[in-house]
Design brief:
Layout: H1 3-13, E1 18-19, H2 22-27, E2 41-43, H3 48-61, E3 65-68, E4 85-88, E5 95-99, E6 104-107, H4 113-121, H5 139-145, H6 152-155, E7 162-168, E8 174-178, H7 190-194, E9 203-210, E10 217-225, H8 228-240, E11 247-252, H9 253-263, E12 273-281, H10 283-298, E13 303-307, H11 310-321, H12 323-327, H13 346-352
Parallel strand pairs: 2-4, 3-4
Antiparallel strand pairs: 1-2, 5-6, 6-9, 7-8, 7-9, 10-12, 10-13, 11-12
C-alpha cells in the first residue's frame, strides 16, 4: 500500500485500527469457503463517517474495498479477491435501540446475531433469523449475505426482517433507505436491493430489523431411523400433513458419530439418520402438532423422543449447531452446499446424494 494512502488511512481510523502486517492480512484473506486472497491492508472504521471517508479515499486512488464482518459467510463475499482494503466492520457493534412498542431494533453491522437475540428476548421479543453461525456471525454479514437458518422453514430468513438500512455508497455518499418502524416506502424497496448483495453495492452501517412476539411454547422431536431414505420420506410426509415446523433437520450416520464423538450427548451412533423437528406456538396446538409429528415418524423410525424443557431442547440444538466443528475433527476439509428442491423430491435428493 502506498505510503501516502497509508498515512491518510491512519488519519481516518488511527494506528490501532489499521494493519498491513503479513500475518494479519492472512487472517482476513478468507471466509468459510475455500476461496482466499490477501488484502493489502486491513482497516477497521468505528463510525459511518469514517467508512465514508475511506470509500472517498479508495475512489480517489482506485483501490478495491471489500467489506467484512466475522468472515463466516459461505459465498466468498468477504474475500478480497482484488486485494486492496479489507474493511472490517466489527468495531461498529452497538445495539442502538430496541423499540418494544413498535417491535423493532436498530443495530450497527458488527453486532453478533446471538447478542441481539439475547437482548431482545430480555424485552419479551424475538428476532427469528438464526444462522448456524449465530454465535459469531454479525448482523451486517447476515444482511449482506442474505443469511438463512434452521428456523427459516416457519419464520423466514434475514431478508424478511430488514426494515431499513443506512448505507455508504461506493463514492462515499451516506443514504438511508426505507424506515425503522414498518419498512414501508413510497419509492422502490431498496432494502431488498442491498440485502444479499454481498457488499457489492454499498457498505451497510446501520440496520433496522423487525421483531416479533415469541411463541408461548415449543417442543422438539428427535426421531432415529435405521434407513436414511425413510427419514427423507418422513420429512415429506410431515409437510404433506399440513404441519409447518419451526425447524426440520436431517442428520446422517457419519455426522451423528462425529457430533457424538465431539460432544458426548448420548446420540444413537448406530442410527442411519436422525430427524430433529421443532414446533412452536400456543401450547395446546404445539402438543397436538408434536404428537402428530411423532405419529408420522413412528411409521418408519425405530424410536421417537419429545423434548419440552428448555434444557432438553438446548441440548439437542447444541448437537445440530456443532456439526461443522465436529466434522472438522474427521477430516480437515468439509464441503458445504445449499440445495433447493420441491418438497416431493426430498427423498430422491437424499438418495442421490
Amino acid at each position: 500500500m502506498d505510503k501516502i494512502i497509508g498515512k491518510e488511512l491512519l488519519e481516518i481510523v488511527g494506528r490501532e485500527n489499521i494493519s498491513a502486517e503479513y500475518e494479519d492480512r492472512i487472517c482476513y484473506a478468507y471466509d468459510a469457503t475455500f476461496k482466499d486472497s490477501l488484502p493489502d491492508v486491513i482497516v477497521k472504521p468505528g463510525t459511518t463517517e469514517e467508512v465514508a471517508k475511506i470509500l472517498k479515499l479508495a475512489n480517489q486512488y482506485k483501490i478495491p474495498v471489500t467489506p467484512r464482518g466475522a468472515g463466516t459467510g459461505l459465498s466468498g463475499g468477504s474475500v478480497p479477491i482484488n486485494g486492496g482494503i479489507s474493511l472490517v466492520l466489527t468495531r461498529l457493534n452497538k445495539i442502538l435501540k430496541i423499540d418494544v412498542q413498535n417491535r423493532s431494533a436498530l443495530v450497527e453491522p458488527g453486532v453478533i446475531t446471538e447478542d441481539l437475540q439475547t437482548a431482545v428476548e430480555e424485552k419479551g421479543l424475538l428476532y427469528p433469523p438464526d444462522p448456524a453461525s449465530k454465535k459469531i456471525s454479525t448482523l451486517g454479514g447476515n444482511v449482506a449475505e442474505g443469511a438463512g437458518g434452521p428456523r427459516g422453514v416457519k419464520y423466514g430468513v434475514t431478508k424478511d426482517y430488514v426494515l431499513g438500512l443506512e448505507v455508504v455508497l461506493p463514492q462515499g455518499d451516506i443514504i438511508k433507505i426505507n424506515n425503522s418502524v414498518d419498512g414501508e416506502t413510497e419509492d422502490f424497496d431498496y432494502t431488498m436491493l442491498f440485502t444479499a448483495s454481498e457488499g457489492t453495492l454499498g457498505i451497510i452501517t446501520k440496520i433496522a430489523v423487525k421483531l416479533i412476539l415469541p411463541p408461548q411454547y415449543q417442543e422438539t422431536v428427535l426421531a432415529a431411523f435405521d434407513n436414511l431414505e425413510h427419514a427423507g420420506e418422513t420429512v415429506s410426509a410431515i409437510i404433506r400433513a399440513g404441519i409447518i415446523p419451526t425447524t426440520l433437520e436431517i442428520i446422517d450416520q457419519e455426522t451423528i458419530r462425529a457430533v457424538e464423538n465431539y460432544l458426548h450427548t448420548g446420540l444413537p451412533t448406530d442410527a442411519a439418520a436422525l430427524l430433529l423437528i421443532e414446533v412452536d406456538g400456543a401450547e395446546l396446538e404445539v402438543k397436538r402438532q408434536s404428537a402428530e409429528v411423532a405419529k408420522i415418524c413412528n411409521l418408519a423410525s425405530r424410536n421417537v423422543k419429545v423434548a419440552s424443557t428448555k434444557q432438553e431442547i438446548d441440548k439437542l440444538w447444541q448437537a445440530r449447531r456443532s456439526i461443522s466443528g465436529a466434522c472438522g475433527m474427521l477430516k480437515p476439509t468439509k464441503l458445504s452446499e445449499d440445495a433447493t428442491v420441491p418438497r416431493s423430491k426430498i427423498p430422491q435428493m437424499i438418495k442421490e446424494i
